[in-house]
Amino acid sequence: MPEWFYLGVTVFLGLCFGSLATALSWRIPRGISVSVERSRCPSCHHALGIPDLVPLFSWLALRGKCRFCKAPIGWRYPLIELVTLFLCLLLYARFGFSAAVLLMFCLSPVMVAAADIDFAVQILPDALNLAIGLIALAVMGVNAADTGDAQSFILSHGLESLEGMVLYAGSFFVLRQGAMLALKKDPLGWGDIKFAAAAGVWLGPDLMVYAWFLLAAGLLGIVIALLWKAIKKEAEFPFGPALLAAFVLMLLLKPPPFIIQDYANISLPFFQPI
Questions:
Q1: Rounded CA gap, 102 and 18, in Å?
Q2: Is the pLDDT of residue 48 over 90?
Q3: In Å, how far from its chain's centre is CA 162?
Q4: Coil, strand or helix: which one is 175?
Q5: pLDDT in tens, 171-197
Q6: How far is the C-alpha of 266 from the C-alpha of 179, rounded, in Å?
């Protein structure tokens, strides 16, 4: 297939996943079922149809208002959809187009929704952390099927993922307990530790990758803290988005060994592996 076909599919899936991310970010904190409940306007509670749910274009066509009650629809919804699309495009540009990469696209709505929820209510939901880890196992399984020895592939890389999960979750737990003793406050929530475990499944036990992950998360955390204090006027800030962004950065710069890469014909020199 020509390159434009794969790029078009990526854009289409990115926008669809963006719509899913908005649903996840709205429903999970409120305990609303993602799979059963129909989408409704949060103001008039009218059930929404296809003209209201086309990612990005519905918001533009309706000029940011509900079609029924004319209540304003916040800019965060198209922003979530655009960020999700951007992540899918990055994954496509970095890893090409394959069954495994299609599964990796599923990371985008999960991570964007997790970041949005943490910004809103300072929680990284367990369901989203679990999804991140399970997607890693699914990608590993699909790539194992493409090798000559799937059993050895899964045993080898599965052990690395287990070691990574222990390294990331264990060190974050020790860091949390030590900071609590020294600072007399909780600098990391349990959601952050559970996310670290899921990230470890992807990133493995490579200590260099782990060090870069911590450095990136720390620097991004400082930036978010300064912006949070300037905008929200609050000292405590959500650290989850910094962890999520650092994870994406490491995933692009140092791909997990269980990912079989098939690069797209898009040049991204600043994403050379470390």
A1: 15
A2: no
A3: 20
A4: helix
A5: 999 988 887 787 777 777 889 999 999
A6: 44
Please provide the distance, in angstroms rounded to a whole number, between the alpha carbons at the two ends of the chain: 31
Alpha-carbon distance of 129 to 195, in angstroms, equals 5
Q: What is the pTM of this model?
A: 0.88
> In the block, which residue shows the tokens 């949390």?
176
Tokens matching residue 182: 């020294």
- Beta-carbon neighbour count of residue 165 at 10 Å? 22
Amino acid occupying residue 88 = C
Q: What is the largest CA-CA distance in the chain?
A: 59
Name the pLDDT band for 36 (thresholds 50, 70, 90).
low
b/e per residue, 184-223, with b = 16+ CB within 10 A?
Answer: eeeebbebbbbbbbbbbbbbbbbeebbebbbebbeebbee
Q: Which string of DSSP letters, residue by residue, matches 46-65?
A: PBP-HHHHSTTHHHHHTTTB
